[in-house]
Design a protein that fits this description.
The protein has one domain. With 147 residues, it is mostly helical. α4 packs across α5.
Length: 147
């Protein structure tokens, strides 16, 4: 079986750039719809408890975190910085988790190469979406409309 992404493992159409999410996923051979999926768990874990203005900034930080270099963090408002930091903490935790490591190893072996982590994130977001009612009293359509 060939590489399901249509490129040699690890190939990237954009080279070493700061990946804005659409280019990042397209370089992995994923569709723009898949790109949107990689944010579900991050947005869900942002939590609804914060006051509305803070919550909106926190969500924005969660959404843009992968495109913000560390040295530019100070240029954002505190609630956006908090969202960026939370996104990075979630990434660090999940990237070190044994289950996620096994998933990425399997995907790497199947030809996903350096994009195995991204593909695993999309898979996990799919499973969260498919079973959202087990984790939230809010429906998935209501949640996605709100965020």
């Amino acid at each position: 079986m060939g590489n399901p992404w249509g490129r040699p493992a690890g190939a990237c159409a954009y080279g070493r750039t700061r990946f804005w999410f659409s280019g990042y996923y397209r370089s992995a051979g994923l569709t723009p719809g898949a790109a949107a999926m990689n944010f579900l768990a991050h947005l869900y874990l942002a939590g609804p408890e914060a006051a509305a203005p803070t919550y909106a900034g926190h969500l924005l930080g969660q959404f843009i975190a992968d495109s913000v270099p560390g040295r530019q963090l100070a240029g954002y408002q505190p609630e956006v910085q908090a969202g960026i930091r939370m996104h990075r903490a979630i990434d660090t935790f999940t990237d070190q988790h044994p289950v996620v490591r096994r998933s990425t190893a399997r995907l790497r072996a199947a030809g996903a190469g350096k994009y195995a982590g991204v593909v695993a994130d999309v898979f996990y977001d799919h499973f969260l979406a498919a079973n959202f009612q087990e984790f939230s009293a809010e429906s998935l359509p209501a949640f996605t409309q709100r965020v």
